[in-house]
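hi!! sorry for the late reply, been swamped w classes. u asked for the two structures so here they r. pasted raw, havent cleaned anything up. first the sequence of the first protein and right below it the tokens
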Amino acid sequence: MDAQTELDDVAERCWRALDTVHVTVYFAPEPTAEYAELGIRARAGYFLSRSAAMGAVSPEVTIATFYVFAPGLVRHVMRGCWDEVTPEAVTAARQQGVAAALHRVVGDPDVTEAVELGKQLCAGFEPQGRALYAGHAALAWPEESLVALWHVGSLVREFRGDAHMAALMLHGLDPVEALVLDAQVGGRAEFLKATRGWSADEWSDGGRRLVERGLLEPDGTLTEAGGTLRGMVDTQTRRASAVAWQRFGAERTARLRDLVRPLARQVADSDVLPEALRRR
């Protein structure tokens, strides 16, 4: 294994560990309870809390930056919400909620070293072309260490996510096609259908388009061309983020991965995440 391949591998594992910790905020009951205190409807909490870093943006900006969610769903759940609450209040509720959730699941670990390494990693990230990441990067670092580590996961997730969205568009995969293809690769079809807001007809039409492009077989299985395209999307996603990991280096990346992995295992072994996300 050459040095670049080794770095790519350890960076992927580090990202997955951080992301497992981060996604607690989307599934634990504590953040939802905090949003409810602000009068935010349950499903709106996800869209408002994630987009709040960009300010009181319109549903259209959220549709653009989240990419794979049905526009009708986003417009419905976000309608009028910013008339009732501020982005600052939502961001504070998000951090309070995830703090409570993480302490419940992982206790009170010493994450001082992991936070310092995470800040060093994120210092190498550049915001150009990454609108959602840029919004989160502009937020102040949380004072509590465990929430600061969660924020590292947030920055890594959005930095990579913006690159992944660009790769999908570069290869002509619209939101539904991207989801259908991902469902075939990751085995998360039911989870994605239930959470992304597309109708059964829209999902079926996306699959039909992929069959016409030779990316899926008529029975829905991935073709060789589909596997190749999916691999190219993943490769370009990694390449768009590679410079920051190269600056950070394989040694520090491996150390950060090792520090975060036990926490990620605790989250994955808890009842917080849906089954579809525990196989990470």
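now the second protein. again sequence first, tokens right under
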Amino acid sequence: MTTRLYSHAACQGHDPGPHHPERAERLVAIERAFADLPDGPFDRAEAPLIDLDLLELAHPAAHIERVLAAIPASGYASIDADTGVSPGSREAALRAAGAA
């Protein structure tokens, strides 16, 4: 069985704001650890952008629109008490969903 890491450079653009535990440095550390693994059943793949029609199989269109509309053109915004977003969050989220 092969373990695959899906990622994309755009995922590092998601910045939920200062002091939030989710940060680009965590993703970089995971990718570095993955690269340091010995030869074995591991590979990497680029996380594709999800087609919004597919995303609507899991979430109502109104919810998707509300979340994407909350992403700011600059600075930071909060979708809820635990979810901070920045301009890079849109593509990162759509690539994460595409990888799933």
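hope this helps!! also noticed smth abt the second:
DSSP finds four helices and four strands in the chain.
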